[in-house]
Automatic annotation (TrEMBL):
Keywords: Calcium, Cell adhesion, Cell membrane, Disulfide bond, EGF-like domain, Glycoprotein, Integrin, Magnesium, Membrane, Metal-binding, Receptor, Repeat, Signal, Transmembrane, Transmembrane helix
Protein name: Integrin beta
Similarity comment text for this entry: Belongs to the integrin beta chain family.
Gene source species: Culter alburnus
Main location, first listed in the record: membrane
Length: 730
């Protein structure tokens, strides 16, 4: 064989073995709680008489079918299942109801709002979330502008932005507010402006106007702004973005759609660049506005990851309005910040309103779900069901695109836990659509113990004078104790006196070399194949060393117990290779072995040496049925032929029925097992009959009265008399 093919086959074999590993038996669970955490298919048998001699407590933990095969009843199997409970499920709403505009806290775009999940290890709990964009949803937009000298021309066009943008946004929402802030860079060298142009003193970030419904106020305040400058080209916009995100009260953010328009004509500084000005203190991500001015310019810039975190926490969607030269740079930044967009400013920013509208439409037409940090061992997966029947899995399962106002989409969410948290307590996670304040609260409860655990009896006398808790049919031993009934301390595990109790006699191995002697009791070893096991007081029995037939243990028709096959009903033999079913021996005449043999192990053993075949119906040296019975039929029907003198003695074994013509004889489809015969007599005439063996083994012959003879008068008068005799007989 090709070496590569051999290697592939080995790898495939390993993969199959790995797939077939029984997690339940592999876990060696000592209690019901440990068992159910091993996997979702694992159950624990609580029947106190379930364990056989030599079997360990962990034998109680197995897959459900395996436990039943071992003799554990369904009623004795602990197999708790997880579930999903919906605690708050208000339907999604429209902005107006019965002609009245709803308040902000009455608008619902995601459903349900709260769930409780009971998680069994390895078993996914699935639920659906519905999202629907509400029309006329309020919008807060904060315009953050670079006031370095490179944006001088752009400032002129932004001065009337407030009223113009207000009018444009009224086509989208009747509830719109706008604010304005500006930034330049750090106020330490080498950042400040030293130009002799008409520029204001350098500053890091300034909140010029908190969010307001007054567009003219926006125009008035922005018109008073002057550009500033600095020596290096990248600006300190990240400082400003951080403050806009975290200073919720100062900026005036409401729990509505929050848009941040970041307008610049250059690049940006980020964490680490502060070293240029001997700045090493890291950005702390907190609000530091005093009289609307940023007071921690001597702290380093925030990192991109830090910004992403704060923008997400505060549900802010960012629109980067940048000049064409820096569009590729901000496009890369946009790929790192969820729910952000990039638009290209014209040289003097006169297209900024169209840019904002286009970017808003792009952002609002996509919903992306994100979840809070998951507890250890918990995983989550999403499947999106979007417009036009489009469904996605994986990371794409978190989002739907091209959503219009009023469109409804659903997400299938599956949460799975592997084991239980160390503290065993409930955890709470949240799922929300990025850029929205609404969220779904999910309480996670972990199924760490079986129901029968509650009924445990501490210090039970069954557990060797109170050395354990009798729980779920078994002893859960106290610290330092081991054994099926906690009968031994760990210090007494191996002693000569105890080992003697684990030998069948003095000349045999301890536990037949198939187990370990624990506290004077054999605990049998586990096999790699979980279906194979040792048992018995001395581990002298097993269920895999029985006779085989057709390479199957006990012929596939029984079970192996202590190296002996226990056959299924209708089977016998040392390998259950002998079937007691006789249906395979029925001949075509419904007789067992054609009445010429016996049925042994489902096969015919022919007693008449002339007959052979699977049902003793083949006789190479035998005449045909028609030829064999011709003389008897002829003598019974016409009183002629070779047996006419011995007819009564030799030919009484069948019933004879006369019909007029051969066409009146039974046809082939009238009944099964029928032979049609055509024989010639001594006068060269043909006579016709049928020969049938019926289900009760009786034989029936039907004979046609009319003969087919050569043309001309009969040469033998005896046939005329025979015909008359046939008529009078029937």
């Amino acid at each position: 064989m090709d070496v590569r093919l051999l290697l592939i086959s080995v790898l495939l074999g390993l993969s199959k073995t790995q797939r077939d590993v029984n997690k339940c038996t592999k876990a060696s669970a000592q209690s019901c709680g440990e068992c159910i955490q091993a996997g979702e298919k694992c159950g624990w048998c609580t029947d106190k008489n379930f364990l056989k001699q030599g079997e360990q407590k962990s034998t109680r933990c197995d897959e459900l079918d395996a436990l039943i095969k071992k003799g554990c009843s369904n009623a004795s199997i602990e197999n708790p299942r997880g579930r999903v409970r919906v605690n708050k499920n208000q339907p999604v709403t429209k902005r107006t109801k019965d002609g009245v505009k709803l308040k902000l806290d009455q608008i619902i775009q995601i459903q349900p709002q709260k769930l409780t999940l009971d998680l069994r290890s390895g078993e996914a709990q699935t639920f659906h979330l519905k999202f629907k964009r509400a029309e006329d949803y309020p919008i807060d937009l904060y315009y953050l502008m670079d006031l370095s000298y490179s944006m001088k021309d752009d400032l002129e066009n932004v001065k009337n932005l407030g009223t113009h943008l207000m009018k444009k946004m009224q086509t989208i929402t009747s509830d719109f507010r706008i604010g304005f802030g500006s930034f330049v860079g750090k106020t330490v060298m080498p950042y400040p402006c030293t130009s002799d142009q008409n520029c204001t003193s350098p500053f890091s970030y300034k909140n010029v106007l908190s969010l307001t419904e007054d567009g003219s106020q926006f125009n008035n305040l922005v018109s008073r702004q002057k550009i500033s400058g600095n020596l290096d080209q990248p600006e300190g916009g990240f400082d400003a973005i951080m403050q806009v995100a975290v200073c919720t009260n100062q900026i005036g953010w409401r729990n509505v759609t929050r848009l941040l328009v970041f307008s610049t004509g250059t690049g940006f500084h980020f964490a680490g660049d502060g070293k240029l000005g001997d700045i090493v203190l890291p950005n702390d991500g907190k609000c530091h506005l005093q009289d609307n001015m940023y007071t921690r310019s001597h702290y380093d810039y925030p990192s991109i990851a830090h910004l992403v975190q704060k923008l997400s926490e505060n549900n802010i969607q960012t629109i980067f309005a940048v000049t064409e030269k820096f569009q590729p740079v901000y496009q890369e930044l946009k790929n790192l910040i969820p729910k952000s967009a990039v638009g290209t400013l014209s040289s003097d920013s006169n297209n900024v309103i169209d840019l904002i509208i286009d970017a808003y439409n792009s952002l609002s037409s996509e919903v992306i779900l994100e979840n809070s940090r998951l507890p250890e061992g918990v995983s989550i997966s999403y499947v999106s069901h979007c417009k036009n029947g489009v469904s996605e899995k994986g990371e794409n399962g978190r989002k739907c695109s091209n959503i219009s106002i009023g469109d409804e989409v659903t997400f299938e969410v599956a949460i799975t836990a592997k084991g239980c948290p160390s503290n065993g307590k409930s955890e709470t996670i949240k799922i929300k659509p990025l850029g929205f304040t609404e969220e779904v609260e999910i309480v996670l409860n972990f199924i760490c113990e079986c129901e029968c655990h509650k009924d445990g009896i501490p210090n039970s006398p069954v557990c060797h004078f109170g050395n354990g808790t009798l729980e779920c049919g078994a002893c859960r031993c106290n610290e330092g104790r081991i054994g099926r009934t906690c009968e031994c301390s760990k210090d007494e595990v191996r002693t000569e006196d105890l080992d003697a109790n684990c030998r069948m006699d003095i000349d045999t191995d301890i536990c037949s070399n198939n187990g370990d002697c624990v506290c004077g009791t054999c605990e049998c070893k586990k096999r790699d194949n979980p279906e194979e096991r040792y048992s018995g007081k001395f581990c002298e029995c097993d269920n895999f060393n029985c006779d085989r037939f057709n390479n199957k243990l006990c012929g596939g028709h029984g079970r192996c117990e202590c190296r002996k096959c226990i056959c299924d009903p209708n089977y016998t033999g040392s390998a259950c290779d002998c079937s007691l079913d006789t249906s395979t021996c029925l001949a075509s005449n419904k007789q067992i072995c054609n009445g010429r043999g016996t049925c042994e192990c489902g096969a015919c053993k022919c007693s008449d040496p002339k007959f052979q075949g699977p049902t003793c119906e083949i006789c190479p040296t035998c005449p045909g049925v028609c030829t064999e019975h011709k003389d008897c039929v002829q003598c019974r029907a016409f009183g002629t032929g070779d047996k006419k003198d011995t007819c009564e003695k030799e030919c009484s074994g069948f019933d004879l029925i006369a019909v007029k013509k051969k066409e009146d004889l039974p046809q082939p489809n009238d009944q099964p097992y029928i032979n049609h015969c055509k024989e010639r007599d001594a006068n060269d005439c043909w006579f016709f009959f049928t020969y049938t063996t019926k289900e009760d083994s009786t034989i029936e012959v039907q004979m046609a009265e009319d003969l087919e003879c050569p043309s001309g008068p009969f040469k033998n008068r005896g046939y005329k008399e025979a015909t008359l005799k046939l008529y009078t007989r029937f």
